[in-house]
Design goal:
By secondary structure, the chain is an alpha/beta fold. It has helices spanning 13-24, 64-78, 97-107, 168-174, 186-196, 233-250, 253-275, 279-294, and strands spanning 3-9, 32-38, 54-59, 83-88, 92-93, 112-120, 123-127, 131-134, 141-143, 154-156, 158-159, 164-167, 200-211, 216-221, 224-229. The strands form 3 sheets. Strands 1, 2, 3, 4, 5, 6, 7, 10, 12 and 13 form a 10-stranded mixed beta sheet that branches. Strands 9-8-11 form a 3-stranded antiparallel beta sheet. The protein has a two-stranded antiparallel sheet with strand order 14-15. A hairpin with a 6-residue loop joins strand 8 and strand 9 (141-143). The model has no long low-confidence stretch (mean pLDDT 92).
Length: 308
């Protein structure tokens, strides 16, 4: 099968090159790696020894994680990929990661997709618990139980972008990442689209990506461990806005207004007040995210305060 790995990078060439090295030194090497240079000030150039394996897609400006993913996926389809593997540029791929994905793809049906599991680079036995189950009644997500990460595989309804391994047939049927979301919750929106279309997602803990967690901290809240973003209100804005946009589309008007929106707003407000750094800026970003989501605004939030 033809497998295209996609790596999106912005202004960190050494980090991206380490990622490429880990991919190309795996037990199983992808057919090609598409590197999306998402508007770097100095255009990214891979090490010379990798040129024959790498295709560069250069974007004039930062299109966000969603725009970078969509550009990479479009290129992968042009290259006649059978499968597409999304790898964060700051991830280090274990040697067996891709081979594990391929073995599972060979024994599951055609309407199945997979993901590698990210592990904390400073604690390699600690996975990121970012695979979720989705309630079609309330629109709420809940993490897959932690004990499932000890299984050879487990199912999920939505997940983060890092490690996604999807057949080209999924992209052709449900579409690429929605570039108009710019980023954050864009991966959840994409995987929910796949789930709603009847595709089944499986996470494979043996397919490992080591990933830094510098932008998060783990906190205990009513007996549960939560990952909280540190001092990044703008990410909170995009995640909130895109969540509201997505659930507004997926749920009927009654369920969205009476079930999802009140529960989501109260939960997020409490978490920000009790747990977040920079609470004032975070609350402002959260309120604005809800407001813009309800108004249907998309695109990048500019310094002038307008979305495009």
């Amino acid at each position: 099968m033809s497998i295209i790995a996609i790596v999106i990078t912005l202004d960190r060439p050494e980090t991206a090159s380490r990622c490429l090295t880990s991919i190309l030194h795996g037990v199983q090497r992808p057919s090609r790696i598409v590197v999306v240079d998402n508007g770097s000030a100095v255009p990214y150039a891979p090490p010379q020894e990798y040129w024959q394996f790498v295709e560069i897609v250069r974007l004039d400006r930062n299109s966000g994680p969603a725009g970078g993913a969509a550009s990479g996926q479009k290129k992968a389809l042009e290259l006649k990929a059978d499968w597409i593997w999304m790898v964060d540029d700051d991830a280090i791929v274990d040697p067996d990661a891709l081979a594990t994905l391929i073995r599972s793809a060979e024994v599951h049906d055609a309407r199945t997709y997979f993901r590698s599991v990210c592990y904390n680079v400073v604690d390699p036995e600690l996975p990121f618990f970012n695979s979720f189950l989705y309630s079609r009644r309330t629109g709420m997500l809940k993490p897959v139980p932690r004990e499932r990460y000890k299984d050879p595989e487990f199912s999920f309804d939505a997940c983060a972008m890092a490690g996604l391994f999807v057949p080209s047939s999924l992209l052709l049927e449900v579409g690429l990442f929605d570039a108009s979301l710019f980023g954050w919750y864009d991966d959840t929106e994409f995987t929910l689209r796949a789930t709603m279309a009847g595709f089944h997602g499986y996470a494979l803990p043996a397919s490992r990506l080591l990933h830094p967690s510098a932008n998060r901290r783990q906190l205990r809240f009513f007996g549960r461990s939560l990952a909280v973003l540190i001092d990044q209100p703008w990410r909170l804005y995009y995640g909130t806005r895109n969540c509201v946009l997505t659930q507004r589309r997926l749920l009927g008007k009654t369920r969205f207004l009476t079930l999802f929106l009140p529960v989501f707003s109260v939960r997020r407000f409490i978490l920000i007040v009790l747990l977040y750094n920079n609470r004032r800026a975070s609350l402002h970003s959260f309120v604005r995210g809800v407001s813009d989501g309800l108004r249907g605004r998309k695109g990048e939030l500019t310094q002038g305060g307008r979305t495009t």
